């Protein structure tokens, strides 16, 4: 994941309303009884940080398998680190005997890797220039040279583009996805494209689904672009040199799904985390934390009976744009879709400078039931005397396909590259002015990058949600439709996955 942190509200202790799912249950014994229908307190009592930490150490050693190819530990799709992760998840569940039906779902995925790049405008190297994710290389993976040419408006229609043969397009961000601009530039004959931010600051993003029309594309900040826009408008020439050595290739990767054999198969509680990391690092918090939480809860659940089916998913290709979860939902028949009563997303549960964040998933904008789930999370934090914040439910993680296909969704997180505010420091401790996860998408997302207090507490919360819904969905809104009203008014969203696309 994950989130671009604009905490949209700060909910203080004691302000949330009471849940229909009481946390305190009648059970008194903390020693769980096998062969009883699962109860929250009992399942939670089996969650210990020591086993989570052991799993994190194992996962890091698996990420080291990626070193040979990437020169550092990684679990990016296609790497040995990711294949090892899949084996670890699969074999852990397989060892639990016949409690679960375990399956692999393979699907095609696109991966990109930029090996080298440079951009020179006039005689200067713009400091903010970076290649966009999934960019193709420049021709023959060699530098190309040509004058810079300004594209009109937002560069979202063919008529915005002059003849760009042997030229480099300079295009504003805005109105349509980066991938559309790159393809239109390519069709107009451009040898490369530079997209500049129309808001303040640096820009980075992805071209999304590859197109044969895409050209090598960089992004730069508003400030870096300004002098060149002025020159071009004054009729001056800006000689440009662009170079990207990159590959974009198709591979197969795999989602792993484990479903309880017991429990009503027509009423499933589903939860997921992503098994992959970015290429830049081992991804122990993102999303080792979420995927290991699922593994631990799945392991402990086998001690109980369930009323409703519970389905765990470990998605692949999340970092490339939610590929695994998109694929999974896209191939569900309407009948299968309607069997999923809700989907819970667990992406980054142990950020070192954490906040307890709950997706603000409401029934007004999302499938009905999303808000009941949201309130189950907030009631848990409140009943533990903890603060939480609401964060936008804006398409940056694997819940997106579910809510777009009528399935109620939600989840919790602890923060990515957002900056902790002074107010949030008061609520959660930690360091104001730093990122929630200073190692987000980097080399240093190792075992040392986990806050174990937050991780254990959040894993107990995941256990609480699983136990609550596995036990009963009677109070939970029934599924009605496999469609969701399009709340965006048909406009593409800024995010579909962790990377900006518009
Ligand atoms: C949550 O989202 C709803 C829209 O669905 C919005 O009205 C509300 O203000 C949001 N709440 C917070 C705390 O941001
Ligand atoms: C499923 O994938 C896992 C992980 O790659 C692998 O170990 C296992 O053998 C596969 N199982 C089947 C039935 O293909
Ligand atoms: C919750 O936030 C308040 C400040 O609004 C703070 O005084 C309190 O200590 C926080 N509680 C916890 C458990 O951190
Ligand atoms: C995790 O967070 C807790 C609560 O803020 C803090 O007391 C603890 O020192 C942190 N642990 C680590 C390893 O950062
Ligand atoms: Zn993630």
UniProtKB/TrEMBL annotation:
Pfam families: PA (PF02225), Peptidase_M28 (PF04389). Its cofactor is Zn(2+). Residues 144-221 form the PA domain. One of its GO terms (biological process) is proteolysis. Residues 255-465 form the Peptidase M28 domain. Residues 1-18 form the signal peptide. InterPro entries: M28_fam (IPR045175), M28_SGAP-like (IPR041756), PA_dom_sf (IPR046450), PA_domain (IPR003137), Peptidase_M28 (IPR007484). Its EC number is 3.4.-.-. It is an enzyme of class 3 (hydrolase). The keyword ATP-binding does not apply. Keywords: Aminopeptidase, Hydrolase, Metal-binding, Metalloprotease, Protease, Signal, Zinc. Transmembrane segments: none annotated. Gene3D superfamilies: 3.50.30.30, Zn peptidases. It comes from the Eukaryota. One of its GO terms (molecular function) is metal ion binding. Belongs to the peptidase M28 family. M28A subfamily. This is Peptide hydrolase.
């Amino acid at each position: 994941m994950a989130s671009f942190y604009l905490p949209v509200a700060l909910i203080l202790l004691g302000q949330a309303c009471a849940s229909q799912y009481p946390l305190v249950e009648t059970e008194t014994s903390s020693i769980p009884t096998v062969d009883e229908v699962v109860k929250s307190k009992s399942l939670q009592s089996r969650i210990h940080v020591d086993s989570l930490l052991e799993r994190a150490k194992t996962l890091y050693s698996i990420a080291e398998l990626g070193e040979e190819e990437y020169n550092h530990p990684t679990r990016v799709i296609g790497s040995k680190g990711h294949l090892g992760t899949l084996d670890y998840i699969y074999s852990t569940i397989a060892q639990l005997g016949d409690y679960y039906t375990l399956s692999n779902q393979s699907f095609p995925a696109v991966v990109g890797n930029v090996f080298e790049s440079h951009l020179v405008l006039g005689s200067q190297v713009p400091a903010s220039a970076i290649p966009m994710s999934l960019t193709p290389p420049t021709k023959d993976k060699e530098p190309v040279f040509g004058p810079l040419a300004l594209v009109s408006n937002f560069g979202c229609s063919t008529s915005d583009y002059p003849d760009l043969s042997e030229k480099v397009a300079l295009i504003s961000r805005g109105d349509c996805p980066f991938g559309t601009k790159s393809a239109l530039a390519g069709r107009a004959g451009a040898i490369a494209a530079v997209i500049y931010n129309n808001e303040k600051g640096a820009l980075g993003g992805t071209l999304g689904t590859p197109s044969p029309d895409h050209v090598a594309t960089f992004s730069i900040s508003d400030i870096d672009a300004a002098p060149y826009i002025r020159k071009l408008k004054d009729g001056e020439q800006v000689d440009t040199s662009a170079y990207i050595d990159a590959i974009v290739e198709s591979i197969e990767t795999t989602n792993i799904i484990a479903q309880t054999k017991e429990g009503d198969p027509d009423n499933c509680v589903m939860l997921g985390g992503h098994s992959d990391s970015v290429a830049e690092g081992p991804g122990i918090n993102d999303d080792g934390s979420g995927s290991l939480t699922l593994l631990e809860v799945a392991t402990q659940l086998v001690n109980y009976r369930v009323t409703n089916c519970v389905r765990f998913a470990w998605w692949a290709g999340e970092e490339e744009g939610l590929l695994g979860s998109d694929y999974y939902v896209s191939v569900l028949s309407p009948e299968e879709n309607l069997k999923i009563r809700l989907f819970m997303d667990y992406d980054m549960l142990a950020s070192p400078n954490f906040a307890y964040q709950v997706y603000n998933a409401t029934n007004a904008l999302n499938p009905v039931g999303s808000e009941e789930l949201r309130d189950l999370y907030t009631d848990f934090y409140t009943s533990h005397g903890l603060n939480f914040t609401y964060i936008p439910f804006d398409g940056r993680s694997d819940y997106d396909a579910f809510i777009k296909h009528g399935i109620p969704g939600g989840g919790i997180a602890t923060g990515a590259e957002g900056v902790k505010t002074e107010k949030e420091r008061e609520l959660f401790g930690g360091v104001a002015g730093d990122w929630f996860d200073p190692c987000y998408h980097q080399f240093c997302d190792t075992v040392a990058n986990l806050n174990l207090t937050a991780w254990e507490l959040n894993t107990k919360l995941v256990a609480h949600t699983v136990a609550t819904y596995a036990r009963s969905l009677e109070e939970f809104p029934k599924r009605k439709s496999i469609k969701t009203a399009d709340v965006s008014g048909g406009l593409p969203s800024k995010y579909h996955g962790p990377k900006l696309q518009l």
